[in-house]
Amino acid sequence: MQTHALKPRLSFWQLWNMSFGFFGIQFGFALQNANTSRIFSTLGASPDDLPLFWLAAPVTGLLVQPVIGYLSDNTWHPTWGRRRPFFFLGAILASLALFLMPNSAAVWMAVAVLWMMDAAINVSMEPFRAFVGDKLDTSQQTAGFAMQTFFIGCGAVIASLLPQIFAHYGVSNVPVGGAIPDTVKYSFYVGGAVFLAAVSWTVFTATELPPPDMDRFQEQRKHARSFGVALREIVGGFGHMPKTMVQLAFVQFFTWIALFAMWIYTGTAIADNVYGTVDAQSAAYQEAGNYVGVMFAVYNGVSALAAFLLPILARATSRKACHTICLAIGGVSLASIFFIHDKQALMLPMIGVGIAWASILTMPYAILAGALPANRMGYYMGLFNFFVVIPQIVSGLLLGFFTKHFFGGHTALTLALGGACMVLAAVLTLFVTDRAGKVTVN
Fold it and tell me: CA–CA separation, 14 vs 20, rounded Å?
């Protein structure tokens, strides 16, 4: 087992600067999560086909994340560092995709742009996880991931509310001629600008630690430039995953089935269950879409606040127990949406989902970081995200079938299924080995 060298302790503002880019990254993800199904439906997609169209996102992550992790592990520039070149390149491409997405004229075009957008966001996002492992000592890693979670929550709150805010100030929320409403268009334009600005802040204010043994690193980098060697190492890593990573893989699998169900089907579920419509061209359906943005803002806002409470709960119990409790709360909350027909009451389950989301973005990565070799942090963090995207692919292939043939097209029941999966993930967390166990509050 490789030991981790003691790293300089960072101040609050250093943690702030190195994490601020996630504010922009989550701006992009939040706009994608809250509005993609709405865009597809407005362009004429059937609810049964939505999971298949959403496959673009996880398949892209499956292909991009381990490759970017491997490349960033083997990158070093005296000025740009190791991870920051990927932050910046991904931000430029993601911003372009965010401008293109609401201007899609057909479903096939929206799906193609979703591929581009998700690939670009992943290029920026994946190295951010390794960034914490690179720069922070084990005693600060939970605080580092919690800071990322705080910015994820803040970015997502604002991004999710944007269509509602624009509608409040008189921007049209009606899909004229089958086109995407102006509220959604302007929201994506703002998102593109914020994504690039926030990631650039981290790129130009944060620094990176050089490899401790530069001569050895240069030799390894020359070796890694061979395509055959790179491919062999990327694929071969599956057989050498740490035990903790394997255990967390099962937790992630059921967690992300639940999340994918929520992102795909909350819009149609609320339109049907609360607004009484399944007509994507109706004003009520578009109003439901805006309200889903409010709901998603609530759960992300809760997660931003909960992020700083998680280390305290983990210290009082353990990181494993903390994650178990949060997932159980989130699973029950998500399932309860099926029983709610009043839009104001929908805020309560969103609080529970927000608590779970804060832990999902923090605890698995904090537990994992302590079990990984430092020289392969980026690669294994990218590989770990296989267990985020594989369940989404499974969901994309099966959720539509279950919704149509077992739930009679009622997508609120699909959300209940997602809630049950999250509760199962909570149970599986109890079997994870966490070397560090309890944590200190930073």
Answer: 10
Residues 40, 101: contact at Cβ < 8 Å? Answer: no
Give the torsion sign (CA, 266, 304, 344, 413): positive
Cα 409 to Cα 44, 47, 268, 333, distances in angstroms: 17, 8, 10, 21
pLDDT at 239 (0 to 100): 65
User: pLDDT tier at 373 (50, 70, 90 boundaries)?
Assistant: confident
Task: Give the integer Cα–Cα distance in Å for 387 and 122.
Answer: 14
Alpha carbon of residue 409 to chain centroid: 27
Angle (deg, nearest 10), helices 138-168 and 182-205: 150
| Dist CA 20 CA 217 (whole Å) | 29
Look up the pTM and report it: 0.70
**What is the per-residue DSSP string for 253-296?**
HHHHHHHHHHHHHHHHHHHHHTS----TTSHHHHHHHHHHHHHH
For the chain, the 3-state helix, strand and coil shares in percent, each to the nearest 5, are 80, 0, 20
Q: Which residues pair with 77 in a beta bridge?
A: 81
309 contacts: CB under 8 Å, gap ≥ 6:
none
Tell me the C-alpha distance between 264 and 33, whole Å: 8
- Classify 77 as helix, strand or coil: strand
Q: Say whether pLDDT at 356 is over 70.
A: yes
Residue percentage of the chain with pLDDT more than 70: 91
Q: Which domains does the chain have, with CATH numbers?
A: 12-429 (1.20.1250.20)
Residues 37, 272: contact at Cβ < 8 Å?
no
Structure-block tokens of residue 392: 């989404």
- Is residue 440 scored above 50 in pLDDT? no
